[in-house]
Amino acid sequence: MKTNQKKAWLFLAPTIIFVTLFSIYPILRAFGMSFQGGSLIDLHWNGLSNYQYIFNDPEFWLAIKNTVLYAIISVPIGLIISIMLAWIIFDKVKHKSFFETTFFMPYVTSTIAIGIVFRYIFNGDYGMLNFLLRCLHLPAPDWIDDPAMSLTTIIVFGIWSSLAFNIVILMGALRNIDPNFYTIADMYGASGRDKFWRITMPELVPTIAFLLTMNVIGAFKIYTSVYALFNGQAGVGNSGTTAVFYIYNKFQIVGTPGVAMAATVILFLIILFATFLQRKMMKKIGEN
Predict the structure, then answer these.
(1) What is the pLDDT of residues 248-259, one digit of tens each?
(2) Strand pairing category for 44-45 and 36-37
(3) What is the DSSP-derived secondary structure letter of residue 148?
(4) Model's pTM, two decimal places?
(5) What are phi and psi of 44, to 5 degrees?
(6) What is the DSSP letter of 93?
(7) For labelling alongside 242, which of 133, 148, 155, 181 has CA 20 to 30 A away?
(8) Best CA proximity match to 39, nearest among 197, 268, 252, 208
(9) Dihedrals phi, psi of 26, to nearest 5 degrees
(10) Residue 62 pLDDT class (50, 70, 90 cuts)
(11) CA–CA separation, 182 and 203 (whole Å)
(12) Helices 128-135 and 111-121: crossing angle, nearest 10°?
């Protein structure tokens, strides 16, 4: 028995070392640096000054506000659209593999590259989106250069970019539902709506819980989309700044790693709390 335990630890050792070096140590290091001031090569103990600074910094609260709004709006809307599209493809479309591949393409494409394309689509003067809106006699806002539209632009892009991963995972979950459930439902004359709400949705709850967790965490870590859409900035006057962009700015541009790490710790706690809440919520839904 002891020999087997030693062999098990031997096989687990590479993973444990990897996780320790690249996951646990950075968290502990960030927490320690949050109490230090100065440049990266000349850090010194600073107490709670970094936390006092970010709590009194309006830009930090704007970043948190934008990030929370982005998560609250983009995650549920993106998930609802993903469920609808996955169900339509699964139930109505014959060549499912082609559409799965088409939807999955954006997930394996660089966000920077897609963001550059969307920057032209969102362009207020010659963008495709405003061209279509004008054809429909609808208001055509300045998606990129109007500070009031910065967060909306990020949300629209975030919803679109989340569809790829969500749809592929949901399609896999739909295939795992026992087809006998639908056969029996047909025997009792159940409508398509009844089958969706009484069979499909309950069976998808574990998958939806997983996607919700992944999407919430991803939403709180949004950075690349902002960088790509606004050409390395966070919108006009930092109107589209997010928590991770704030951390990047303080660490790389301003050169205050202690402040950046203090913001990182706060963001980590927010993600932990948000994940805990949504897991409890999905658990209650699953029990019902």
Answers:
(1) 998 888 888 888
(2) antiparallel
(3) G
(4) 0.85
(5) -145, 160
(6) -
(7) 133
(8) 252
(9) -60, -35
(10) very high
(11) 12
(12) 40
